[in-house]
Design goal:
The strands form four sheets. Strands 10, 12, 13, 15, 18, 19, 20 and 22 form an eight-stranded antiparallel beta sheet that branches. The protein contains two helices and 22 strands. The two termini are 40 Å apart. It folds into two domains: 139 residues, Exo-inulinase, domain 1 (Jelly Rolls, Sandwich); 212 residues, Sandwich (Jelly Rolls). By secondary structure, it is mainly beta.
Length: 361
């Protein structure tokens, strides 16, 4: 059985053929165990899959009564299951809407006929609400260039506030590039040079250097675009380092180069291919949510739209073997700088960035 609780939802005849759309608190007794995760029905898909809070996956009790709680105060949306805080999303796409109990169609899968979900003790409170604490779980903040109080408490700071480039400089100079990059309508954009080297702005880097950190960022690529975010730079020049690949896999030939897809979107470029699912990848013109976590113990993770797509240990024997078989074989100490800036790449294509946040670990 699969079901859910719709909230702040709508049904419009001019949208998805009148299908109900909006936020949904999931009821998922499958092996995936994403119960109380937040899904955006018939719109953006998963906003809070439980990869982001794996400790909460055991909260659901199969065959027993489960107690769900949903709190919506302003843009803050939080869910609990059997007293366990599961998800926290900050979003303002739909500030109000109806509440609904979901039923899934079963199509031709006749073995699902007769399965049931039962509900009781449905209660709501709308006045004198006191916001709950998120207790340090991961927060998905979908408000552009916004740093919530919870994120501040967790140590995050904005690298890009939608207006200023003050936290960045050229990778090869002390000033921000005078061309090739622009800030407009809350978005930091690297512009296509059209093949003219004179129009390139070049890579940019953070003015501050980082060792262990967590970086969150939104990116939006144009058709056929290529870019990336690099870290662990400094041992072999300002632009050589580990790269979170940003690529239009459907249209850029680099997706088919390298080995077993290790140059596609969210990969550790030329070293490790990302394990992505098509429905968790947004195409050209849509915003993707990226995340890089570099832990003090050497563990590194790449995330895409709430899913962990890569995990490796920097410097171990597997890492060294991968480097030895890559284009970086001749770079001594590749990717192993203890501290360095974070780099945003100019690869001659137009790519947009926003909501760039970082915290040191």
């Amino acid at each position: 059985m699969n079901s859910g609780i719709q909230f702040r939802s709508e049904s419009r005849t001019d949208y998805n053929n009148g299908r109900v759309h909006g936020y949904q608190c999931e009821v998922d007794p499958s092996g995936r165990a994403w119960s109380a995760g937040i899904y955006d029905e018939a719109r953006r898909g998963w906003l809070y899959p439980l990869d982001l809070n794996p400790d909460s996956r055991s909260a659901f009790k199969m065959g027993e009564w489960n107690h769900y709680r949903i709190e919506c105060i302003g843009p803050s949306i939080m869910t609990w299951l059997n007293g366990v805080l599961v998800a926290h999303v900050i979003d303002d796409m739909t500030p109000e809407g109806f509440i609904a109990l979901q039923v899934h169609s079963i199509g031709n899968n006749k073995e699902n006929e007769g399965r049931e979900i039962k509900w009781k003790n449905i209660r709501i409170k709308t006045d004198n609400l006191i916001p709950s604490s998120s207790k340090g779980i991961y927060v998905v903040n979908l408000l552009p260039n916004n740093l919530s109080d919870v994120e501040k408490e967790q140590g995050f700071e904005l690298l890009f506030d939608g207006k200023s480039s003050e936290n960045f400089r050229s990778a090869n100079g002390e000033e921000f590039p005078s061309q090739g990059w622009e800030i407009n309508d809350g978005v930091l954009t690297v512009l296509s040079s059209g093949g003219d080297p004179a129009k390139r702005g070049g890579d940019i880097v953070t003015k501050k250097e980082y060792g262990s950190f967590e970086l969150k960022f939104d990116f939006n690529f144009t058709e056929g675009a290529n870019s990336g975010i690099k870290y662990g730079t400094g041992n072999n020049g300002p632009s050589i380092g580990l790269e979170y690949q940003i690529l239009d896999d459907e249209r850029h030939p680099d997706a088919l180069n390298g080995v077993v897809g290790n140059r596609k979107l969210a990969s550790l470029y030329d070293l490790i291919p990302s394990e992505t699912e098509r429905r968790f990848v947004k195409g050209p013109g849509e915003w993707n949510r990226g995340r890089i976590v570099v832990s003090p113990d050497g563990t590194v993770q790449h995330w895409l739209n709430g899913r962990k797509v890569i995990e490796y240990t920097r410097g171990n024997n597997i890492y060294r073997a991968l480097v030895a078989r890559s284009k970086y074989v001749d770079f001594e100490g590749f990717g192993m700088a203890e501290r360095g800036p974070v780099l945003f790449q100019d690869h001659n294509d137009t790519v947009h960035f926003r909501s760039i946040k970082i915290r040191e670990l």
